Amino acid sequence: MDYVAAVLTREFPNRHVASVTPARKGNHKHTVIVEFVDGHAVVVQLATDADALHLETALARAVGDRTTIPVPTVVTTGTIADRGYAVVERAAGSELHEQFVELDDATQREIAHTFGRGLAELHGAFTLEGYGAVTANPVGTRVEFRADETRDWPRWFSSYVHDGIDALPAAFDSLRDSLVAAVEDATFPENPLSTLYPWDLRPGNALVDDGSVSAVLDWGQPLAAVPGLGVAKVEHLVADWYVSDGTLLRQAFRDGYETVRPYPPVEPIHRIAAVVRSAVDSNGEVTRPGYPERTGTRAVSFHRQRLESLL
């Protein structure tokens, strides 16, 4: 079945399509850009897990409503056969992942500032009761987001880090015992503040236009955690991922956060967790930092060096 054609027939029965172009590569979604003959363009996303895709679009709408983060407008969502789909407006700009290293230092710092401010807005706009996987529940005309997985922060966070350690390939074996010890030696508050944890908020999921972030694209599989974990993760993906010395980017990120709310406590174990959970993707493959992307032993070396410095 041609799912894209089926979606277009249902949602745009009177529009004539000029082209359908495969777009972003993801582990969970199939995404294409559809251009109509009148010049208008939309993005169609398809996923076998319809509920997960509809949760993502509900969160994207809420982020657009509650923060200044630029999020493409969701046109519609639905289910066709065994696929969930979402249609969103195509945002202006090019892949920030590919452009970041080409930008001048001042523009890089401004983008880091933008990510810091955006994360702080998310932390202010989305506070939750529990930790772990977030769900969306319609309440009248509003969507309420909840984290019902657990109310036990130490247990959830310990499991979250241990799962990341277990996923590391053999190239990390010499660090494994030290990472486990770092988790076991850490102390955790019993009932800390829980906020939205946008674990994949990064330049790789953003567009840039004229030196500014023009869209943040991926809000899938949202989690709830303490603010410090979110800060550690996003800061790592912004300040460490693309440059050899992220000191100035880290400061710009923090300055951006503090324009909205006070910087939260970020414990060493938060930073270790951020790197561990960034080193391997959902397919078990070592992630490829930088651009041009490091691969193979160079990618492993990047993650190992960061972990060694934290340990």
From TrEMBL:
Tagged with keyword Transferase: yes
GO molecular function: transferase activity
Residue span(s) of domain Aminoglycoside phosphotransferase: 20-261
InterPro entries: AGP_Transferase, Aminoglycoside_PTrfase, Kinase-like_dom_sf
Domain of life: Archaea
Keyword set, alphabetical order: Transferase
Protein name: Phosphotransferase
Lineage of source species: Archaea, Methanobacteriati, Methanobacteriota, Stenosarchaea group, Halobacteria
